[in-house]
Amino acid sequence: MTRRRTLLLSVVAAGAVAALGGLGSALTPSWQRPGIRGAAGFGDLPPTPMPPVAPEDPRAPVTTEVTVPVDGTALSATVHAPSGGGRHPAVVLVHGGGPATRAALTDQADRLARSGIVALVYDKRTVGYSFARRDYGLLADDAVALARLLRGRPDVDPQRTGLWGVSEGGWVVPLAAAREPGLSFVILVNAPTMTPGAQLGWAIDDRLRRGHAPAGARRLAARAMAMGGTGYTDHDPLPGLRGITQPVLALYGAEDRAVPPAQSARILLDAVAAPCTVRFFPGADHGMRVDGRYADGYHDTMVAWINGLPGTAVSTVAGSVPTQVEAASTRPCRRGVGHRSSRPPTGRSRLER
């Protein structure tokens, strides 16, 4: 796929959202077709309450700056550790899309540390990362290297160390977890479980549908992304998901407009053999926020689940399952340049060469 076509498709999608959404607002939305609705497929999993969480430590966490070399790049990171002594559970926070720095996740790392969990945040590598090309395998190597650093700290319990990934991090963390079986848990936040092309296509379709765009315009814009062939958009997440052996906590915002929450959770439950705990948060968006604030129970659910392991490692679903009008495409992805990051999870990573 040429750079020219990649740029063209992105322009088509962006233009469709901006122009056709406005045009369609004057039209009657009689084009809606049936898709995923309500809690289909979730009725067999009973909700289970989480154990209570202790109050957060009012003392500021202890922060340490570290640098970890991975594949020729020095990753800068900050470790947020609880003020109290002893060994603690620990987690690496893996970014979503874009050239993010550790500042984007510092608030969450701080709260985790105040709750007794060592948290590491880092500046995401940007070399080789673009709209057209993203090596999720290399990003997974970054996460593994940082997790190994945490497990070697004297204040960390290496048997209670895991990975946390949000949005695009949901494609990275499964690869990393499959390569590092010594990790003890995985947390996924608004993680898509279909190809990036299908996820982008669904998000565009949802945006246009809410703007009352004509059905033909919606299909044109969505298919431009869902058709794949634009590098990373062909990444197949299923091998990584199937390679996870650690218990999983998956958190979804019911009002997420970037990722199809109900469908993503259903695919996750079908693909992961390990216990998978799913929680839906009413009113929460893609950033897990409601009216600008983190959804009630979001932080406490993570803390209770981590501290309760292995007892909390149970396949259950809780919260109001969102109504998803349309399903994202789950077509088999084509082999293309995007598959450079989709090597089998049992294969050796760059860290092992």
Quick overview:
The protein is built from nine helices and eleven strands. It has helices at 3-24, 106-114, 136-151, 169-179, 196-210, 215-226, 238-242, 261-271, 298-308, and strands at 62-70, 73-81, 88-94, 118-122, 156-166, 185-189, 248-253, 276-281, 289-290, 293-294, 317-318. The strands form two sheets. A nine-stranded mixed β-sheet has the order 1-2-4-3-5-6-7-8-11, with helices on both faces.
Task: Please characterize this protein's 3D structure.
The chain has 353 residues and is α/β, with parallel strands linked by helices. It has two domains: 1-27 and 195-232; 42-194 and 237-323, Rossmann fold (3-Layer(aba) Sandwich). The chain contains nine helices and eleven strands. The chain has helices at 3-24, 106-114, 136-151, 169-179, 196-210, 215-226, 238-242, 261-271, 298-308; strands spanning 62-70, 73-81, 88-94, 118-122, 156-166, 185-189, 248-253, 276-281, 289-290, 293-294, 317-318. The protein has a nine-stranded mixed beta sheet, sandwiched between helices. The protein has a two-stranded antiparallel sheet with strand order 9-10. Helix 3 (136-151) crosses helix 4 (169-179). The longest helix has 22 residues, at 3-24.
